[in-house]
Structure formats: structure tokens, C-alpha cells
# Entry
Amino acid sequence: MQINGAPLNSFALNSAGAIQGGEVEPVPAPQSTLWSCRIMLGDEDVTAQVTGSIRIEREEGAAAIAEFSLYLPEAVVDVVGWTGRAVEIYYRETLDAGWLEEKRFSGWLEQPSYDPRNRIVSCEATDRLQDLVEAMEIADIDALVGGIWTVDVFEATDGRSRWDYAGERLASVAGSLDRSVAGALRLTPWAAQAPLKRFASGTTIDGSLSVDIAKLSDRVNQVELDLKYRFSRLRERHQAFNWEHPDIQGWSVDNGFCIWRANSTELPTIDMLEEALSSAGYNLLAGAELLTVPLSGVYCDPPQAWRNDFDNLLLAADVVGGMRWVQPVTESYALTVVASESIAQAGPVLRRDGASLESELARADDWESAEFTGPESDAAQDAIGDYLVDLRETERLELVASCILSGARVTALGSHRGNKVSWQVPTSMALGIDLVHTLLMEDRIRAQGKVFSLIDEYDIEGQTAISTITLAISRGGGTIDDPLTLPPPPNSEVTGEVPELIQLPTQLRGRGLMTYDDELDGFAGNYDELDIGSPPDAFPRRHQMTAPEVPAEHRDEFTASTSRTYRVAIPNDLLEL
# Structure
């Protein structure tokens, strides 16, 4: 017995079935079939002109292709004008109630090729999957494909291929994009579902069953990701300074001004103090405590009149200077995605990838040069007393991490679907099956997986209509899917000591024998009345400060690292040989 001209194994009719939505759908093998096909080229039915064979190939993630040949009549035909015409191919067979017809292909004629000797036009049609996606708006691709995408991993979309963009989004999606026969673009998950049909023993064409096992080298089960994130740390360091005239005994008028007046000297001014701070790289911060010489009035005991029109002469000062700089920080994240069961079975098959990200926020541009009188409201103090503002873009970093981690997970899932099970049946037994479906195969082997490809071959002369069904079988194992969340940032705090109060010294010419030290910080000046033997040359009146050296690890780029491993569960589809 032959069905469609191809020998079948013996089997009992209605012996195959699977539960879909609670109902059993058998896959009966007809004892004989009267079949035909119908081809529409635009609005014209060209079935009568078909010669040779018809081939339709549909595969997940790829454009559908149809090939057929037409014999041209004697009349003049504009073959060039056929390019771009709509093509529809239907499979037809007779039932008791009449003809059953199912559309098996829809698309457009890509490129006809004419053989003038035999007057045969070879036609190749495609569903133009790539062109359809290329014509879509970005937002529509996002809605259709989903996935995770960021310009920090891929290139900006302006002026780029929309098809490439869709592929970049698909890199983080465990599914395939294709076009249905009805014309709808769709995303189909790879994961097998409840089987639509079951092919029992004896339902396949003799010699058509094949099993291709994925190569070990293609079974990626460990992906090493190196993610580097560089940002600016706005650092503000405070340094306290104290200076008191050496002759005063306190900050009151009597213990300060009155003692100094009895043996007066040159004094620094507030301006001199601020200039000294500025020369040392500091800004004078708010909250300074200043003891100034009082303005004109009557002071001390016994009371004495005092004339002074200057309100900025200092007898003592407790001030804090603030210094700012930008310290670059680089965080390194060593992220590993593993299929543990697969590794345990055959050892690691590694791939490496990564991404780098740098935050360049404008806030850092004038951080060192801007005037300030205190820390920023969002600054946090670290262990050495510095005020820090980290210009981190956490959401941006997390999106990059999610993008590459999802991509690594999909790489592992996809590489474990390389096992393929194929068989042939009469097309009448393949009706209703699409790339979105899961099938159960129980003829010589037991296998269950999602349909990977469908190939229809209609031989007009041989009178055979045969469909080749291929399943993608996922094997790997594991039950744990770890959340693909970025670990907490690594510790990037520097070590050191909290700056101590700096007591500024004083050099005053006129009391005792002494020489001037140009490098000594603090105030230098002269007594108004000099002791005999005082240096002949007057000391310069100046106020000087030097900033303590900033350790290199507080100023230069600081690096910190952390790591995390993520487990991926690989589905174990049924495959028994």
C-alpha cells in the first residue's frame, strides 16, 4: 500500500493522539489520498501551469521560502512584472464532504528565472520576514520582540538596520521571530509546551527518521562576563586649622585684646587668612570662629580709649578649609552564567563576553573649581571623614548587567537545543502543525520538542506530497534559575586617617634673637616695639598654610571588584533512543 506514492510502516488507524486542551487529537494515516495543490500568483490561479515539484521550507527565526516552476503558454507574458507579486500555495485533499484546503505558504515572488528553451519560469518566493521587520518602527519592534536592549551594549539605532536591532533584542529572548502563514509577525518561545499531536509507531515513512546529536563543542554551558563600570567620585576633604597670637591668654577682650594691646604687634587679616587657605587649595567653610581686634571704643581695666577703624584684624582663628577633587572609580564585576548539570556531565564549554560602561555626568566638570562653603546635601561621609558624592547611574548599570546576563542565559539555552529529530509523513498528516507547536514522536524513538522546521515537497509527476518535520530537543538539566540581578557594588572605600587639627605657629620679630623661616607655616610679622638685638631686617607680614599631602590612593583611580555565579536550568525534553 502507498499513500501519496510513499511506503508507510504498518500501523493501526487512530492509534496516535495527544492531549491539547484536554482533548485527544489523533494522527490517522489515510489508506489513500487524492490530493492537489493550488498556487495563486497575485490574483491569478497558475496551478494549471505548475510543472516539476513544489518545495516550501519554513524554519524558526528565518524567512519562509517556496520554490516552484511554471510552464509559460504561447501568449506573451511579462515575466519581469511578476517580481514582487503575492504568492499563496495551498495543499488540497478530498474528504467525504469535499475538498479540504490549507494554506501552506504566503509571501511574494522574489526572483523569477526564465528558461527560454523549455519556456519554464523557475520561481522563488519568500515571506520577506527581514523586509517586514525593517519597515517597522522601533517601538513596534520593542513591543513584538521584548528582550533587553541598551545603547551601552549595542550601537545607537539612528541610521541602523531595524532587522539588526530586532536581532539584538532577540539575543536576550529564549524564542524565535518568524511570520505565520496567515501573515502575522510573531515571537515563539523555545520551551516545549503540551504536545499538539502524537506520532505513534508506524506513522512515519520508511527510512525517513533521523537523529542529529549536538556536538559537545557547541553546547555552551558556561559564559564568563567581564563588566567594568567607571564613574566619578566627588571627594571633599575638610582640614581644621587653629592660629592664636602667642601672647594672648584667651578669647575674651580682657584675656586677648587687652594683653595684646600692651605689647602690640602686626596681625593677619581675614583676607590674609582666606588667601592662605586658597593658596593651599582650600575654600573657607562656614562656621569659622574668629577673634578680631575690636573697633574704636573704651576697653580693658583700667578703661582705656582705643582707636581702630579696621574690623578684620585677627588675634585668633579656628577655621576649616575644604578641598575638592574628582577621583575616578572603576568597579569590576566578574559574572558567570553556568548550566551546572551540563558541566557535571561533560565539563565546561566556555564562552567569554563583557561590557564596559562609563558615567560622565556634567556635575563633575566644575567640581574642583566651584566656590563652596560646605558639603553638598547628598554627600555621605566615609571612614576617613571625607564627604563623597558618587556619580553612579545605578539604573543604567543594572540595565547593562541585565542585558548581558540575559544574553548569556539565552546562549546557554539555545546551544542546548542543537539535538534535532526529523521524520517524514504524508502532508495530509502534517496539516494543522506550525512552528509554534510541540509534538510527541513515538516511532522507533520517543522524543518531544518544539517544531524547529517544516518542509513540504510536492512532486507533481511522482504524485507525492511529503512533509519533513524537525523537532529541536533541549537537553541539559537543572532545576534552579537564579535571578539575574547585579550583586551589590564592591567595597571601594579607601583607608587612611581622619585629618587632625593643624596648629599654626607664629614668627614675630622683636622679642629675642631669631631668624626668619620662609618655609614655616602660620603668621609672620613684627612687634611694634623691638627689643635690643632684634634682627635688623623686618619680617614680611604674611600668613601661610600648606595642605597636607593627599595619598595617591585617595586621588588616583581606585579599583574594586566583586563576582557572582548564576545557575541556569536547561529544559530536559524527552529523547529516548
Q: What stands out?
A: The chain has nine helices and 35 strands. The domain at 2-134+165-213+421-473 is CATH 2.30.300.10 (Phage tail proteins - horseshoe like beta roll fold). Residues 9 and 202 are 5 Å apart (CA to CA).
